[in-house]
Specification:
By secondary structure, the protein is an all-alpha fold. The protein has five helices and no strands. α1 packs across α5 and α2 packs across α4. The longest helix has 19 residues.
Length: 76
């Protein structure tokens, strides 16, 4: 998959996540905020951030069918 095509696929997949997951993926995965910073921004517990981030990456992996961490590197 070409770089541009992969970026579009990543952005489309992130856009299709439910809003809670999308916010956490953008803050943690793309903007690289810490768990603590993300929880403060979203006004939720740190454990919710951790669990939701893990679940969102799992969902992204299914949607894109490649490693979600690798995908996020291309989204930056």
């Amino acid at each position: 998959m070409e770089e541009k095509e992969l970026q579009k696929t990543v952005h489309d997949a992130i856009s299709s996540l439910k809003p809670d997951y999308r916010s956490i993926v953008i803050l943690r995965g793309i903007n690289e905020f810490s768990v603590k910073e993300t929880s403060e921004i979203l006004q939720c517990s740190q454990s919710k951030v951790k669990v939701s981030y893990h679940r969102a990456l799992k969902e992204l992996k299914k949607k894109i069918n490649v490693d979600a961490e690798e995908v996020l590197r291309h989204a930056r």
